Description:
Layout: H1 4-7, H2 12-34, E1 38-41, H3 43-49, H4 51-88, H5 94-119, H6 124-150, E2 155-158, H7 175-181, H8 188-191
Parallel strand pairs: 1-2
Amino acid sequence: MQDPSSISPSGSKFVNMRQLLIFLFFVFSITTSFGQKFGYVDTQYILNKMPEYKEAQAEIEKLAKGWESEIQTLYQEVEEMEAALKAEEVLLTKEMQEDRLSEIDRKWKEVKEYQQQIFGFDGLYFLKKKELVKPVQDEVFEAVERVAKNNRLQIVFDKSGDLVMIYTDPIHDYTDFVLEDLGLVENQSTSSN
């Protein structure tokens, strides 16, 4: 079920969209009044064309699956401890039950902390993703900068991000120029055969 605040006009998504539209209006009014050129690219499309990015994504996914499996195993171990306690409950003294409960609580904490270390903010997953993907993204951004300078663009938008464009004139799409700069353009005659 969707969060009601994301639907209502008072939700933060609506406020961010309104601020974005105001910003875009301001940018477009400046560009038209001063005759500045602008364009847009689709960085996600470009990244998906890059073998290095696909390799990085595959490695990240492999690591994530391994960590998820490891965490799932740890959760199952704690659940088994809880089931064993429940089965032996009538045979244990109150002190023994309390000791086992505190051990189970400690284990739950450890598993949750480990999960946070892996998938939390600045966790291993985030750091590994940054390590593997950032160099590829930097290469794309450098190519975008070269294309922008070669075409004398003052502003280049990324349409794959949070920026939502209701209409875009293809004349301002510089994605293919960036692909060409990166050497990722397929020869049209060979791709049609």
